[in-house]
Each structure stands twice: as C-alpha cells, then as structure tokens.
Amino acid sequence: MTYDVVVIGAGAAGLMCALTAGYGGQRVLVVDHANKAGKKILMSGGGRCNFTNLATTPANFFSANPHFCISALKRYRPEHFVELVERHGVDYVEKAPGQLFCADSAKEILRVLLTECDWAGVDIRLQCSVERVERLGEGMQVLTSQGRIETGAVVVACGGLSIPTMGATGFGYDIARQFGLAVTDTRPALVPFILTSQWKARAAALSGVACDVAVSVLRDDQRQGPGREQHYREPMLFTHRGLSGPGMLQISSYWLPGDELEIDLLPGIDVGEALATARRQSPRRQLSTWLGERLPKRLAQSLGEWYGQDPLLADLSNARIETWQGHLNRWRVKPAGTEGWRTAEVTMGGVDTQAISSKSFAVEGLPQLRFIGEVLDVTGELGGHNFQWAWSSGVACGNAL
Ligand code: FDA
Asked: Start and end of every RsdA/BaiN/AoA(So)-like insert domain (predicted)?
C-alpha cells in the first residue's frame, strides 16, 4: 500500500502530526524503530508528563531563529491541548504556576494520542527502522528494515539526541544534511551538572537536600549562549554527582564548558544586612542556628564545615559578615561538565529553520519533506514548553499536508 504521508518517529510531535493529517483525509503511516510508541512521553515529568504550560510564549524557546516558533504556537495553544485531554477524561494538576501534569500517569497522554490516531485511521509500524529517505518523482520513498514504502510526503519527527537508550539517534540530522539543510551545533540541555574534587564530595554528602536558589551563569569572555536573561529562581538539588533540580536544569541551557555558576542560596535576603541585624538583636546565637532557620538543616551545618567556622553572631566582624554574604548570596562553583546525553531532557540546537516554512514546516523548494518537534533548532525551557512545541508544530504540519 502507498501512503500520502510517512511520519518518521512515533513520539509526541509525530503522533500529533499523524492524527491531524489523518483527520484531514490523508492516508498516514507512522514508523518508529522502538518497540513502543511515545517512550519519552511515558518517562516524562517523573512518569506524570508535564504535558503543557498555560503560560507558553515564544520567549520560552531558544533558537537561532527566534521568530520561527511564533506562528505554530499561536495557532495551536496550550488550551487546545487541555481541551483534547479533557475530552478523553484525563485528570490533571497544576503543580507549579501554569505547569500541567497528569494526576495519575503519563500513560494517559499516550492513550489519548493513540486513541486519536486510531480514530483518524493512522497506521503505526513499530520496530521498523528507517535507513534512508529518497526523492521518487514528485513524491518520496522510505527504505526501512521492513522494506520500501512509497509516499507523497515524509515528516521527520525523529527527536533529538537525548537519552540514547530511549531510541534517540540523530537520524533526523542526517536526513536534513542529505537534502542540503544546515544543522546548528547540538548540545545536551535541561541536564544536571557534575562537580569534581572537593565540591563533588560536598554535594554527595548532601545528596537529596533541596533548597530554593537564584542561579546565573558567569562568563568572562564574549562567548555567546542562547542570549537572554541568564537567571532563574527555582529549586536546586544536591546529588551524588553534583547539582540538579529545576534551577540547575534551566541554567544548563545557557552553560558552556568553563563557565562558573553564581548561586544565591538565600534569594531575596540581603545576607549582609540580615546578619548585621541578627548580630545586634541576638549576639549569643551561633551562625549555624541562624542559617538553620533559613536553609535545610544539613546544608546549614555543612556550610560551617566547608568554611571552617561557626562563630557566635557577636563575634562576626563586618569583614566576616561580608565574606559570609559572598558564600551565601554569591556562591560560585565551576561545574566540571554536565551529565550529558544520558540524562539531558532535550537537545539544544538541531535542524536549522531558515529554509523551513514556519506555517507548513515544509523544506523550501521541497514541500514533500517536513521537519517537526525537537529535531528542529527550537528548544524550550523546563516546564511543559517542549511538549507544547511538539503539539503545536505537529498540528501545524498535519493541517498543511
Ligand atoms: P521524541 O524523541 O519524543 O520522538 C522521536 C521518535 O523518533 C522516538 O520514538 C524514536 O524512537 C524515533 N526514531 C528516532 N530515530 C529513528 C529512526 N531512524 N527510525 C525510526 N524511528 C526513529 N518535556 C516537557 O514538555 N515536559 C516534561 O515533563 C518533559 N519531561 C522529560 C523527561 C525526560 C527524562 C526527557 C528525556 C524529556 C522530557 N521532556 C519533557 C522533553 C520531551 O520529552 C521532548 O521534547 C519531546 O518528547 C520531543 O518530542 P518529539 O516527538 O520531537 O521527539
């Protein structure tokens, strides 16, 4: 059988595109080399899938072409996806402002997509690896481990490089290059940091401890990151290997090897002023007691050990208060690296969007080839934005097929 559309990748973007095109009357086949559709959906959001963010705007995305995502995000918005999951009776919760998660399990989101694909008449072929994509007259042919498929159009929804054990390959980039498209530099993003030497040991001793922080990247030279305000106020988590938690994942999108992190362990508190006041009001208290009222107990104790001091507040000179202000409001640490593709949630960079239509996602001059989702150089912040991009780009492309 020949198909109007072959979608490569049964992930969030591919399934959304397939069901949209199927409802539009297209004969659609989705192929994936994995043994199960939507594996990343199942593992996302700690198994509960942060499936959208009600506050998603183009400002939540990094791309060499920041305007590219505007049109699709405007046409298929978070409330459209919420409407879809509500129609399927999925219970959800708003865990942080705007961030919607399944109340029960990420399986619910996959169930919605697979049910809709079924209703839209979409065929899904799993354990089918795509080896090559070629032009064939006005259409395309797809060479797979299960044979050759002729089709009118190919949609590349192969995702990025994160979590290779889940099926990530970089195959989408190969197809892009084959058809003359550029691929911007890729690197792991939304990824924990690893520390070395004394800081690794200190983080490991605090593994499991979390606190609210404000974090930014310090960069000496002019190297360019994604280029926006480099500052997040979100929780940090100490791990056996270094630092994680939402604040660290967010800032990792800006971090380049060699950069330092500046972490405010007491955001919103001017430690200089607060300690001077405490010294006047309760001079007989120990610093660790004061810290323990503002930070997790284990961290408060460790800070005294790290810096070899636990004085009475009365004994803090102005100079020592200033030093402690530095330790607490401007803790500087240089990560040795990140945990890399093994645990990164997303890929920064990807298929350059300059030669791709932001309306139909078709390649300029080759409308039978399209790219959607994470394979493109469009990367969201943490908090449901990446799935919203998968839904919005999938729908825009599916409607245009
Ligand atoms: P996706 O990677 O989902 O799908 C690509 C598919 O292509 C895969 O099924 C793969 O097997 C297939 N494929 C690759 N090469 C192939 C080939 N040669 N032949 C056939 N098939 C091939 N985002 C968010 O918004 N909220 C969240 O809660 C989370 N949580 C989260 C947790 C973890 C651990 C990770 C790793 C990621 C997240 N994300 C997230 C990010 C989110 O999962 C991601 O942005 C989307 O899944 C991207 O969807 P795509 O469909 O573009 O790619």
From this structure: 187-346
Residue type, 361: F
Express each pLDDT in 373-400 by its tens digit. Answer: 999 999 999 999 999 999 999 999 999 9
Domains identified in the chain, total number: 2
Which atom of ligand 1 has the smallest separation from the CA of 9? 7
Distance 85 CA to ligand 1 centre (A): 19
Q: Is residue 343 part of a domain?
A: no
Q: Taking the mean position of all CA atoms in its chain, how far away is CA 364?
A: 28
Q: Ligand 1: distance of its center to the CA of 301 in Å? A: 41
Q: Which domain holds residue 95?
A: 2-187+348-400
ipTM at complex level? 0.99
Distance between CA atoms of 281 and 378, rounded to whole angstroms? 53
Tell me which residue has its CA closest to atom 40 in ligand 1. Answer: 44
Contact 396, 80 (CB under 8 A): no
Q: Are residues 271 and 175 in the same domain?
A: no
pTM: 0.96
Q: Are residues 175 and 205 in the same domain?
A: no
From 338, 365, 392, give the residue that closes a domain: 338
Model confidence pLDDT, tens digit, residues 221-242:
655 555 444 689 999 999 999 9
